[in-house]
User: Which sequence fits this backbone?
């Protein structure tokens, strides 16, 4: 009796037919080394299986690696410090497999083995933080980390009804209470909280000392079905004026309909409004905290050092007698190095400060650390200060340096080829017959774009207006 010939193979049968590891066939199918299943769901025809090269499949496998290895590699790719970003866990790798971003090669479904090359490719993607937020849910401790607050503050967020679980997982703590059901939350919903709840002072919540009562404890929970916003709050979410939101309502037929209020002051359910703002690119999910970058120059002869401050707050004084202040979250190592650089009699200078909402600045000197604060969530917040009169515009280039304007005591003549600025000052060029290097003009120097520069420009503009 003739033996029947198999016409279709599942993944295990295909691997057995070719005498390769099951993981090798899975990787070949997931990476495109073999054609997609053509004989039904999860089934390949005999022609496809027999056409595969077993040696090529074995050579392509190169692994696999554990979910723990993959998690460490992706965490490394996120960079340090991981401010407002939890470490990638082995269970997160399982979610990435289910999202189709990694190929399952074996092991536990929740903690799968994966291909090292594919992990490295994923780690190099610039949108890795956004992919993690989109596909990997967070437990309560991870959600608190993602928001940058203490766990007790996160519990207040849940009590207030600002987020809802999207699932749960059972964790067996064995000797510590047995199986516990832990709620899971969307990382995107967590990251969006500072955007969609603009009335909350999130900087203050993140800076609460250990053992202190949460600022959120005094707030009342959202009444189910009554979480509504006015047009003014929608505008605050999108960082535009109220008139812009009125325009959106008029121009877009799909803008959510009012759920209450009056014709003059309509109220809208928050969730549909947030969904509309996201869909129309009026807001976006923050993938990381905003940060400031500083290039700091210490004593003469010391090389410049670069520092990063997360969630920066820059407070610029209005007069030369005041002080500017910059605060932000730092690492202990960078805070110690910055304190050492600024500890001298004359402090340090900032060659280039880039921060959200302002053009690159530089500070001529006397920069010092005036406060180090440890929050209840463990973060270290650093505050720098300097005389406002020493602040000005930074030069282009990575190292920066203060740009200065020189105002001649005798106004420039017709032969001056230097570029003139609104303050009446110039930056001399070597070939100018009046202000060149060979002439060595006597000028009143001041930081470009600083308080003195702005004051001089205002006076000139006023004089011009008076003459007109």
Assistant:
């Amino acid at each position: 009796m003739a033996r029947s010939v198999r016409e279709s193979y599942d993944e295990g049968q295909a691997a057995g037919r070719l005498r390769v590891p099951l993981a090798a066939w899975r990787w070949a199918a997931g990476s495109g080394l073999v054609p997609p299943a053509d004989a039904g769901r999860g089934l390949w025809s005999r022609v496809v299986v027999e056409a595969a090269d077993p040696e090529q499949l074995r050579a392509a496998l190169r692994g696999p690696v554990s979910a723990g290895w993959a998690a460490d590699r992706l965490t490394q790719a996120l960079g340090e410090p991981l401010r407002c970003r939890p470490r990638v866990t082995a269970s997160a790798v399982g979610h990435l497999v289910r999202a189709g971003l990694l190929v399952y090669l074996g092991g536990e479904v929740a903690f799968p083995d994966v291909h090292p090359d594919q992990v490295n490719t994923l780690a190099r993607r610039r949108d890795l933080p956004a992919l993690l937020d989109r596909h990997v849910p967070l437990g309560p401790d991870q959600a608190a980390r993602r928001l940058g607050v203490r766990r007790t503050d996160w519990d207040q967020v849940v009590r207030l009804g600002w987020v809802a679980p999207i699932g749960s997982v059972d964790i067996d703590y064995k000797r510590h209470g047995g199986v516990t059901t832990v709620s899971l939350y969307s990382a995107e919903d967590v990251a969006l909280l500072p955007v969609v709840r603009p009335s909350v002072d999130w900087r203050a919540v993140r800076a609460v000392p250990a053992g202190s009562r949460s600022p959120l404890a005094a707030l009342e929970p959202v009444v189910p079905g009554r979480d509504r916003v006015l047009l003014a709050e929608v505008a605050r979410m999108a960082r535009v004026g109220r008139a812009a939101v009125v325009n959106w309502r008029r121009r877009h037929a799909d803008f959510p309909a009012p759920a209450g209020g009056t014709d003059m002051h309509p109220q809208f359910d928050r969730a549909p409004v947030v969904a509309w703002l996201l869909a129309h690119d009026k807001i976006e999910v923050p993938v990381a905290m905003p940060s400031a970058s500083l290039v700091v120059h210490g004593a003469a002869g010391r090389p410049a050092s670069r520092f990063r401050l997360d969630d920066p707050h820059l407070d610029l004084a209005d007069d030369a007698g005041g002080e500017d202040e910059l605060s932000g979250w730092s690492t202990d190592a960078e805070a110690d190095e910055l304190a050492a650089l600024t500890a001298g009699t004359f402090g340090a200078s900032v060659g280039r400060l880039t921060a959200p909402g302002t053009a690159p600045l530089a500070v001529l000197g006397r920069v010092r650390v005036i406060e180090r604060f440890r929050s209840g969530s463990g973060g270290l917040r650093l505050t720098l200060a300097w005389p406002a009169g020493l602040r000005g515009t930074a030069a282009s280039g990575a190292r920066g340096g203060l740009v200065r304007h020189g105002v001649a005591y005798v106004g420039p003549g017709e032969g001056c080829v230097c570029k003139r600025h609104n303050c009446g000052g110039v930056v001399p060029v070597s070939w100018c017959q009046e202000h060149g290097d060979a002439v060595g003009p006597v000028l009143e120097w001041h930081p470009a774009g600083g308080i003195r520069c702005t004051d001089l420009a205002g006076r000139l503009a006023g004089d011009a207006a008076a003459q007109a």
Notes: The mean pLDDT is 91. Residues 233 and 437 are 56 Å apart (CA to CA).
